[in-house]
Amino acid sequence: MDAMDTPFTIAGTTYHSRLLVGTGKYRDFEQTRLAVEASGAQIVTVAIRRTNIGQDPNQPSLLDALPPDRYTLLPNTAGCYTAEDALRTLRLARELLDDHRLVKLEVLGDPQSLYPNVVETIAAAKVLVAEGFDVMVYTSDDPIVAQQLQDVGCCAVMPLASLIGSGMGILNPWNLEIILSRLTVPVIVDAGVGTASDAAIAMELGCAGVLMNTAIAAARDPIRMAHAMKLGIEAGREAYLAGRMPKKVYTASPSSPTSGLIGS
After folding, report:
1. What span, in angstroms and rounded, lies between the C-alpha atoms of 170 and 230?
2. 104 classed as catalytic
3. Identified catalytic residue from 25, 104, 126, 248
4. pLDDT tens-place string over residues 18-65
């Protein structure tokens, strides 16, 4: 890590990878394992309602492919549409994972857009924080809501880039910049990334990290895309730390020196 960089720390734990990955939509757990390894991710998010992590002892468990002693598991509430459903799901995850406290909260508004219901999200976040959970929270790119979630006590705020699974990339970088300028907890882009350049842009804006699933799992070659995403995250972070040149609208600037020309 560059000496000028700041550590990527979530709930008191520092990670060297700023790429967080989901575990759904893969062909099988073996492909999931290979893609996660290629991504270099250390935090992997798991949909408790959709993935077996011990709920059914007679079925293969994701934990066999991604053991908790190697990865930080991030149970999530995908498929929940009320605060109560989300609370029930994460309390179950805590029991299944031996009092695990780091969780990803998402409360959806409708099954078509999968846009977050921020009212229910804030309500659930308040309860989870009070119960001692470390809450990473999926939300809209509304700066006011993002500030409220930080004020509630969430350890990371995760605004969408665009709709979940859309692959549309970052549609509103200006809102993300406002959020980044106001929050002190890690801001992690979650949802909408489609390819490595989208991840790089998020990091160039100054985001602490990026979480993705479909962009890797739905690629023609998920394992190769996982590696591409790793490189995109790293390149974007380096560009952010380096500081890009200023944009000069309608003004050219020669890249070669204009003084001391040969023959002049």
Report:
1. 18
2. yes
3. 104
4. 999 999 899 998 999 999 999 999 999 998 877 877 677 778 878 888
